[in-house]
């Protein structure tokens, strides 16, 4: 007989992923392999599972926001140009146009850094939470921690 403890849909996913089944019939939980399924139930940590899922979602949201500002190709170009400009600066003073180009690139990068810092704060909030159900319900893309 299974001693079932509600741990969310992810528990059932873990049971299926392990090649087992679990269903309820007339209030009784029936497993394909009682010992194996009970071990999965007993060891499954819904908080850690939900935190991992939400952290991944926060990272995806940060990437989405960054790419709206500066796509990957432009990030690569900006990095390469910054290296070129650093070399120039070691050889001579920048022209007004070069300084303006540097400042524009830095302004973009400052926006990226703000998103990354916000992502770190949202992730810290997720890791500090102790209720997996609350984390599951949270729409972290709407967190007030993201820059406006």
Topology:
Blueprint: H1 9-17, E1 22-25, E2 28-31, H2 34-43, H3 46-69, H4 72-91, H5 96-128, H6 132-137
Antiparallel strand pairs: 1-2
How would you describe this protein?
The chain folds into 2 domains: 9-44, no CATH class; 47-142. The protein is built from 6 helices and 2 strands, in the order αββααααα. It has helices at residues 9-17, 34-43, 46-69, 72-91, 96-128, 132-137; strands at 22-25, 28-31. A two-stranded antiparallel ribbon has the order 1-2. The longest helix is centred in the C-terminal third of the chain and has 33 residues, at 96-128. It is elongated and about 80 Å long. The relative contact order is 0.13. The model has no long low-confidence stretch (mean pLDDT 95).
Task: Specify the structural class.
Answer: mainly alpha
Biggest pleated sheet:
2 strands, antiparallel
| Strand order, sheet with most strands | 1-2
Report the mean per-residue pLDDT as an integer. 95
Fraction of residues in β-strands? 5-15%
What is the domain tally? 2
For the termini, the CA-CA separation is 53 Å
Counted by DSSP, the helix tally is 6
Helix content estimate: 55-70%
Keywords:
69% helix, mainly alpha, 148 residues, two-stranded antiparallel ribbon
Task: Report a brief summary of the structure.
This protein is mainly alpha-helical and 148 residues long.
